[in-house]
Amino acid sequence: MRRIVYLLHRFPRITDTFIKREIRSLQIAGTDVRVISVWKPNERETTPDILAQWAPDTHFIFPRSTASILRMVITVIWRSPHRFFATLYLALSTSRPGIRGLAYQVFYFLEAILVAQELRQLAASHVHNHIGDQSGTVTMLAAHLAGIGYSITFHGWPVFFDAKYSRIKEKVLGARFIRSISYFCRSQLMMFSDCDDPTPFKVVHCGLTIGKYTYRPPKEQVRRLICTARLSPEKGLRFAIEALRRLLDKGYNLELRLAGDGPSKAHLEALTIRLKVVDQVKFLGFLTEDEVISELQTSDLFVLPSFVEGLPVSAMEAMAVGVPVIATNIAGASELIEDGKTGLLVRPSDAEALADAVVRMIEDHGFRLRAAEFGRKKVVEEFDVDKESAKLNQNFIQCC
User: Fold this and answer.
1) How far apart, in whole angstroms, are the C-alpha atoms of residue 226 and residue 231?
2) Are 333 and 308 in contact (CB under 8 A)?
3) Going along the chain, which residue ranges are E strands?
4) Cα–Cα distance, 164 to 180 (Å, whole number)
């Protein structure tokens, strides 16, 4: 039986929900899937329960001693010098410019040596990576060292904003296939890899375990807004807070709940003080999947003012529960949210447009009911994790 190994930078984190769902769906369907995590997540990134659930399937590369790393390097050189130096050349030729870029690439090469050894011990047939950033580089190098094929799921903006030095072209050309989570994502991959043939790029959505998301129609009164997103600049959350201020000034009695954490938290907290909405904005921190579902069940509107997205899983979760969605009209968002049907799309970086969309939702309960029903239907038909992982598994079968 073929064995698929997922290679991830730091797993299992609380925020890796969509990856965990995908792996479990593949395993339940009978695919032999293991996980190699380069680093073990710290206590802020995960929970003891999550670690315990994934312990039987996950192998951690670091931390380990310098002596053990040196022994492994010597072993690989002795066992297969040609493959070692060919992979070293690949690593050096795809490094970022400058001393720092070279240093990082050498470290990724060392990580790849350790990962390749783990792949051999696991008798892996194929290695798959999510995101495609530095962990995608390690995947490319480790697969080359281990003599097996690899594939990558690309999500979006981090690698696209740095496409040249993320080495998208090299990763695409060396892969057995590339999985993109949206058609927009596929178009960007084709552009950055100079490839006008869509065949190597498989559009397979991220999905939900639909049975966990109990649908309930929207209540007539709107009181609670929610956003589940990393607290970082690209999520545009300051515009959600500014929109809330506008809505409060118009006499609407609302609160905004932000589920997530990240580098913008202090800035956003300061903004709530400046705009005098401290009592109306709640910072919830990282939430598990079950906690997110619980929050959504008591929420009335979902807002996502992002500047960039691949395809927003957080909006997908809200739609599955029946929470009407307002998001910015960017990237692949329109492949999930059909403006005026399954939700509303607004201009990015425009607090007034976001506030106006909230008012429209508040004032038109009939539209919210229809949007919730269509949204749930859309998710069930196109974003069921079991259906999507079955498509992904077919790609694994064809390339192994």
Assistant:
1) 13
2) no
3) 3-10, 32-39, 58-60, 126-131, 149-154, 177-180, 201-203, 224-228, 255-259, 281-285, 301-304, 325-328, 343-346
4) 18
Domain with CATH 3.40.50.2000 in the chain: 3-207+384-399, 210-382
Angle at CA 86, nearest 5°, toward 81 and 87? 100
User: Residue 285 corresponds to which amino acid?
Assistant: G
In the structure encoding, which two tokens stand for residue 20, read together? Answer: 């965990």
Give residue 105's Cα distance to chain centre. 24
pLDDT, tens digit, for every residue of 104-158? 999 999 999 999 999 999 999 999 999 999 999 999 999 999 999 999 999 877 7
Domain 3-207+384-399 architecture: 3-Layer(aba) Sandwich (3.40)
* CATH 3.30.430.20 is held by the domain 210-382: no
Report the side by side order of strands in the sheet with 58-60.
58-60, 32-39, 3-10, 126-131, 149-154, 177-180, 201-203
pTM for this prediction: 0.93
pLDDT in tens, 245-277: 999 999 999 999 999 999 999 999 999 999 999
- Span 379-396, pLDDT tens digits: 999 999 999 999 999 999
Q: What amino acid is encoded at 225 in this protein?
A: L
